[in-house]
Amino acid sequence: MSDGRKLTGCYGTWRGRDVELKSRTPLNGEHRLIKDGGERPGPNWREVFYPNRFARTPYHYWLDVPEAEVSEAHCIVATGYVPMTNDRDYDFQVHVRIIAQDGAGRLAVETETNEPRIYWGPLAREFGFEEYERSFMFGWVPGDRVTDIRMERQH
């Protein structure tokens, strides 16, 4: 986030700097470092172009490094609530996972998979949320509309 807090994702320290990881757990003795957007971080980094990614740039870079080079591997789950009122003046809160923040302070969020589907209509109407394979909804919400933000570190 713009205030320095980490959003939902996995992170670690590599060569003295904070990096994003594909997973907290190494695979075959290696950690996969990831970077979205901007220029390729170095000549050994591989690139994939994803044209339709929500809340991330289409350019995705990765580099596999030995497990021993990464320390402090951990994951963060950032969550909050979006207060809403339906068409019958019923107030409710939608529990969301926060995955990104844009330059205007809006937050990219996804509904938690256990949130009732009755909340989906109001989210689509008010914020233009989209449904993903009947599993959850995602969209952008003004930052001041998300309350009780929590960043939970998982080791």
What does this structure look like?
It is elongated, with a radius of gyration of 17 Å. The chain has one helix spanning 120-127; strands spanning 9-14, 17-21, 30-36, 46-49, 59-66, 70-85, 91-101, 107-111, 130-132, 136-141, 147-154. The chain is mainly β and 155 residues long. Strands 1, 2, 3, 4, 5, 6, 7, 8, 9, 10 and 11 form an 11-stranded antiparallel β-sheet that branches.
What's a quick, concise take on this entry?
With 155 residues, the chain is mainly β. 5% of the residues lie in helices and 51% in strands.
Please give a handful of descriptors for the protein shown.
single chain; 155 residues; mainly beta; eleven-stranded antiparallel beta sheet; 11 strands; elongated
H/E topology pattern: EEEEEEEEHEEE
Q: What general outline do the C-alpha atoms trace?
A: elongated
Q: What structural class do you assign from the helix and strand content?
A: mainly beta
Query: Quick check: average pLDDT?
Result: 92
How many β-strand runs? Answer: 11
The span between the termini is: 20 Å
Q: Poorly predicted ranges (pLDDT <50, ≥5 residues)?
A: none
Q: What is the makeup of the main sheet?
A: 11 strands, antiparallel
The total count of helices amounts to: 1
Supply Rg: 17 Å
Beta-strand content bin: over 45%
- Give the % helix: under 10%
